[in-house]
Structure formats: C-alpha cells, structure tokens
C-alpha cells in the first residue's frame, strides 16, 4: 500500500490576504487593543445582524465572560449538556456556580428542552445550549422554556458560527452567543473568542471583564485626555490582540465560502456512508442549517475504538467529540453523578466518532475515509 499523507481531523485555512492583514497590523502603531479589535467586532456583529460583539482571548474566556455578565455566582445552577468540551461547564465553576447536566436528544445529540425543563429549580440562573457538531439546538423551544422561568439563554456556538435556524443566523438565537476562533473552528485567530448580544449592558460588562474590570481602556483614556481609570469589577486580562483581530477580520470574508465547502463534504460523506448498515448518521433537523463543524458518525459501542484505531493506522485523523464532562475525573470526584443521569448522552458517548472535516479537504479525501470505514466493516465480524 502506498504511504498516504496523514489526514487531520480539522485544519485551518490561511491565505495571502490573511498574512497581509497581519503584517499590516505588525507595521502599525497597535499590536493589541487598537483599531483592529473594533473593526473585527463590528464586522462580525454586522455579519450576524447583532448590535454588540466583544472580542476576547479564547472561546473559554468568552464563556467565562458570559457567565460573569449573567451574574452567576456561588449557589447558582446553570443547566447545560454533558456532551461538550469541558470549557462549557468549567466557565460555570470559574464563577463558583454549579453546572447541572441535562440530556441531549437522540437524533442530533442536541440539548433536549424536555430534559432541561426537568432540571429547573429555584436555584437555576441560566441555560447554556451547545450547538453540537455545528447544528443549532431547538432554540424556539429553549427560548420559550427560559422565558417561562425568566431565565437567560446563552449559546455555546463554538461549533456553529455560520449556521442558522430557519432564516435566523446563529448569533441571534440566544441572549448571549459565544464563539471560539481556535484553528479547528469555522474561522481562526489562532486563539480567540467572541461574545455577541443585542444587550448593551451585558456587552459593556463583558468589555470591562476582559480588561481587569476597568471602566476605560487606554485608547478611551487617550481620547478623553485623562490618565484616570477605575477598577470596578474583578476582571481578567482576556483581551484579544490587534494582530489576532486582523487575522479574524480577514478570515471572516471567507466564512460563507468555507461553510459551503464543509456542507459539500458532509453531503458526500452522507452519500457514501448512507448505504452502510453499520453506520448511523446524525439527523439534520428540518429548517436548521448546520455550520458542519464535525462529521459525527455512530457505530456499535463495542466497535468504536477498533474503528478509531483502524482509521488512525491508515493515517486518517478520526477523533471523539466528546467524553462526557461529568466523566472527567475532576467532575467525577466532585459531583459523582450516577449512571443514568443523562442516558442518551451516555449511550452516544460510546458510539460517536468524528471523521476528518475541514474546508481544505478534497473529495478524494472523503472517499479515502469512507473506503477505510468500508474495509473495516468488511473485515470485522
Ligand atoms: C472549542 C470549544 C470551546 C473552547 O474554545 P477555546 O477557544 O478553545 O477556548 C468551548 N466549547 C466548545 C463546544 C468548543 O468546541
């Protein structure tokens, strides 16, 4: 067999325009917290049709800022799914709050509004939906539920930048929406994140939070001819640099094209894998446009790790997104949630496998992955 190049699970796209945008910023007066931050924030806000965007140093910082702005503190419960990256729940812990895990539905593995409803208590302070694999959750149902209890609804949309629910883009489906710009996500700033909202007070609060809880940044002080500033909250240094924002701004121009490419790759996967009885695909719910972040398949639990190893041995970057948050030792030691807490997620966790998916992939790469899977099932009883 000829030696084939390793096919990663996800990979960024960076072109000459991106490089030029970063170099231009390097040669400017500002390396951090200059005009490129606002330019990126305003372009993303305009792209999504929201009034406010706050750039921060990572998706995790964005989740933390969202929890801070919603006033989460000790004794407060935040409902979220366990089938997510640990950062979704960690952000609640950073604020001293308690993550409460609600189950996902079995077809798309998205937060189940019925399970959320069953977890609401007088201590519940917020709901965080996760658009797993890039598909938006059932936001109308979640919003109705949240509104009924007077709760804010936040969206961890780290997978779904570029997706939509009917004609409404991700970013306008919840009170606060969080994005990550890690290299495997829809667009990248290397590390980076953003929170978008239509709530001016929440946005101002998060702008202070990313800058030590200080009420004016150094450019505002310069413009106002003053050295004075006041620290009013215990914030952090969660700023995103001008260099990174220049990259993000340049990347944003290509977002729609990349989502289209991801979609075509997913369609080809669905064509080729649809005929395999051993492979189950996630359902794309009617009226929802996925940002196609992950190509997740489900196989018999006892075969999943074998298939993972088979693909890895063939140079194919299979992965698992995710082990459940409450199974991580840190969470298991503190919360000790019994088997059956979220039965759908617990079963899915054993069956899921993410196949390579990124805009630079060729259709021949998709065919290579699918023939690797077919070979596995032909040779495995
Ligand atoms: C990537 C990701 C995060 C964290 O983003 P970082 O930018 O890596 O901090 C949080 N939640 C989900 C669902 C993610 O995929």
Side-by-side strand order of the widest sheet: 1-9-8-5-4-2-3
Largest sheet: 7 strands, mixed
- Helix-strand pattern: HHEHEHEHEHEEEEEHHHHEEEHHHEH
Unreliable parts: none
Helix content: 40-55%
General form: globular
Heterogens: pyridoxal-5'-phosphate
Separate helix tally? 14
Structural class: alpha/beta
Q: How much of the residues is beta strand, in percent?
A: 5-15%
**Number of E-state strands:** 13
Compute the CA-based radius of gyration: 21 Å
Give the termini distance in whole angstroms: 23 Å
Q: How would you sum up this structure, described in words?
A:
Strand 4, helix 6 and strand 5 form a beta-alpha-beta unit. Helix 3 packs across helix 4, helix 3 crosses helix 7 and helix 10 packs parallel to helix 14. The mean pLDDT is 96. Strands 1-9-8-5-4-2-3 form a 7-stranded mixed beta sheet, sandwiched between helices. A 3-stranded antiparallel beta sheet has the order 7-6-11, with no helix packed on it. A 3-stranded antiparallel beta sheet has the order 10-12-13. It has 14 helices and 13 strands. The chain is of the alpha/beta class and 381 residues long. It is globular. The chain starts with 15 loop residues before the first helix and ends with a helix. The site of pyridoxal-5'-phosphate has 14 residues, from helix 3 and helix 4.
């Amino acid at each position: 067999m000829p030696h084939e190049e390793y096919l990663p699970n996800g990979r960024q796209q960076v072109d000459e325009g991106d490089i030029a945008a970063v170099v231009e910023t390097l040669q400017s007066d500002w390396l951090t917290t200059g005009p490129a931050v606002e330019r990126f924030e305003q372009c993303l806000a305009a792209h999504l049709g929201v009034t406010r965007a706050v750039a921060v140093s990572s998706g995790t910082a964005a989740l933390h800022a969202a929890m801070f702005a919603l006033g989460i503190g000790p004794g407060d419960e935040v409902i979220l799914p366990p089938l997510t990256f640990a950062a979704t729940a960690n952000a609640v812990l950073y604020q001293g709050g308690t993550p409460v895990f609600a189950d996902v539905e079995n077809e798309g593995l998205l937060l189940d509004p019925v399970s959320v409803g069953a977890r609401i208590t007088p201590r519940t302070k917020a709901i965080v939906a996760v658009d797993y694999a890039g598909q938006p959750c059932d936001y109308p149902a979640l919003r109705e539920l949240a509104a009924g209890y007077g709760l804010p609804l936040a969206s961890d949309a780290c997978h779904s930048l570029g997706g939509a629910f009917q004609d409404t883009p991700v970013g306008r489906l919840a009170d606060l929406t969080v994005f990550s710009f890690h290299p495997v996500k829809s667009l990248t700033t290397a590390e980076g994140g953003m929170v978008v909202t239509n709530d001016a007070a929440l946005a101002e609060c998060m702008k202070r939070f990313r800058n030590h809880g200080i009420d004016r940044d150094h450019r505002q002080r310069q413009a106002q001819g003053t050295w004075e500033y006041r620290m009013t909250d215990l914030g952090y240094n969660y700023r995103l640099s001008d260099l990174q924002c220049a990259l993000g701004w340049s990347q944003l121009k290509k977002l729609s094209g990349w989502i289209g490419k991801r979609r075509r790759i997913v369609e080809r996967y669905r064509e080729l894998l649809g005929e395999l009885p051993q492979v189950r695909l996630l359902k794309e719910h009617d009226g929802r446009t996925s940002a196609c972040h992950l190509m997740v398949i489900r196989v018999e639990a006892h075969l999943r790790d074998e298939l993972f190893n088979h693909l890895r041995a063939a140079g194919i970057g299979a992965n698992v997104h995710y082990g459940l948050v409450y199974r991580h030792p840190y969470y298991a030691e503190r919360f000790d949630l019994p088997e059956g807490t979220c039965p759908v997620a617990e079963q899915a966790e054993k069956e899921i496998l993410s196949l390579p998916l990124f805009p630079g992939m060729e259709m021949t790469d998709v065919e290579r992955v699918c023939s690797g899977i077919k070979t596995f099932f032909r040779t495995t009883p």
